[in-house]
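Hi W.,

Here's what went into the run:
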Amino acid sequence: MIAPIALLAAVLLSAPAMSDAEVRARVESLLGTIDRAIPADSWRALGPAAIPVLAEIAASEDQMPSTRSMALGALGAADPARAETIARALVDAPDEPLTVRETAVRTLGRVLSSVQLRAALAPALRSARPVGLRSVAAETLARHAGQEACAEVMDQVSLEPAADHPRFERAAALCAGKH
Amino acid sequence: MRRTPSRSAAIAAFLSLAAACGEGAPTLTVMVSPAAAFLEGQQTQQFTATVVGATDQAVTWTVTEGLGGTISMGGLYTAPLLPGSFHVVATSVADGSRRGTAAVSVLPPPTCTLETPQPSALPPERVLQLGVHTVGETVTFTVPAATGSVTILQQGTEPLAPESVTYKGSKVANTVVPLTVKVGGVEFFNNSVDPTGGDPAYWGTKNGIGSIFFDSASPWTGTMTVPNTTHMLDHVVDHGGVPAGTWSVVVNDAVEECKAIGPTRCVVGDGNLTYPPGKYDVKVLLKLGAVPAAGTVDVNFYLVTTQLTKASAATSASVARMRQTLAGYFAPTGLTLGTVTFVDMPADVKARYASGVNIDDRLPCGDISSILRMSNAENAMSLFLVNTLVSNQGGTFTYVGIDGTIPGPSSVGGTVASGALVSVANLFFSSTPTSCQDAVNLSGCGADVTAYIAAHETGHFLGLYHVTESDGTRFDPVQDTPTCKLSLCAPASTEVVNSNCTRFPADPASPCGGGENLMFWLLDKTVPTGKLSPQQSSIMRANPLVR
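Here's what came out:
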């Protein structure tokens, strides 16, 4: 295992550094992924110059919603603190596209501790609109904040109209240990 | 739910007999039937014992393992709740040193019900029904002269077959794919032989191995449509169709290959159990006549999304734009977008997937497969429009499209691979009021981007692979699509992107092209993209989905 790591390090050290413009172009290219995942390490490998580009795209109303969502997720991998700031703002921004706000909730699940996450998502779980945001908050809490959060999640599910219960199936399954 | 023991049962019976024979004089032996059983938790199985060499047939029944279930005095065994491998023992009352043993495998229950096999919507004369076969069996059929394409379809029928194998430490789906395909005794495909690196388009020969390509995850339902390589396309041109005559196919799945590889490198299921071998319904779909120069693809849009209903889709300007752009991507290949139908999904389905389809579970009971199983039995491209596609792995949460398998089971609805999913996250986006009014605008018109994704996933369903995969080491089997090797085109990176791959036309000596192709793995709005090569177009038109 040592040899491949050494080889990788050698490749990275010998690689010419990309200019900021090249980093921007590469970030924008990778955000065009269709049906393949971009590993977290690929985002980190782009270095600090990628951070402001990702942050700018995640917050930009001129970008496609899926592109913004991908950028926010990538930022969560590359710079959790920066991602947290943007994600908190997006969760509470009712005029932003729902898919971007949902990704913001999921991003908080990745960058916050379970205690922080419970505090951050409690308002969204209880009263965010539309219901889709509440269900993503429930799922994120169930996935990342453990059984302590599950009591709050299941309490909220009991308050939701029956027609919306399928939206909370994944959260309920996570709390039941089925995922 | 009792499973029929096969090879493993025969082995167990042999071992049982051998053990009995090895314990002193062969005057008395105990035989247990069945010698092996596959059960789900808390299922029952009646065992019987025969005492050979004694008039007293009485036995006492026990289970060797402490938590291995219970058995009555009459031999009725009740499996424990949890899965595992256990042994039922019958001990002779006449001679307590004489025992017979049966092996019991208690398997995890299937997590969903898979209705199988599903029928083809093609006319009966184009469908060869070859029945249910166990892995390892050879199936033969006759392909008439001047047949444009042959599709071999295997649908799982053994519900307790494992969903995955672990190969070299990585869990992969129990992919269904023929082990070999022979025509007139000549091997055209062998799944255990990989192309020896480089571009598979140039591997093998025109009239032998390498003429058929497969590289996809395809659990439970597996499809192989021929032609899908340059070699076979050349054969079709030379002879007016795919090879005619007797084809023979060895029914196979990844589990069967895993067993052959051996436990040091490959483990079946979770590694603790003996599973029943896979059984597959085999159908062959024929496209009679030469590959047409033009054709029509009908599309069913299934509205899983909460953002559209059948009524709103009919009047939405964004949807109309998406249809128009989708037709534009098909047109250069000779394909016309035919009948487009919008299908409203039930409210509970819309609600269940409203907050994202989880694409991490690609197994037969995961979200993707569960949605694709809702497709109707029609010969149309099934595109499921969903709000979002979500992954909890990797560096991003979001995908914009995902296919069932490459290729898909054309004309067969209701399987775990019958279509593709497309996100509508961008459908209503327009960066300016005029972004969706003129030429295709992948920078500012979300309907155009959604159409691009729909075209890309339809390309997969019709048999097209990414021209170059993200890692820049894997390529499609088509010679007129350029490749883009990471080592040559982006040596300092971990992925190749469109701008690394802009040389054209295809040239093995200058392998840095393909970035403008619809089937490149990225959509880059700065590169004029969406192109398909003549050979890619031929593969699409040869698919039985095209009428």
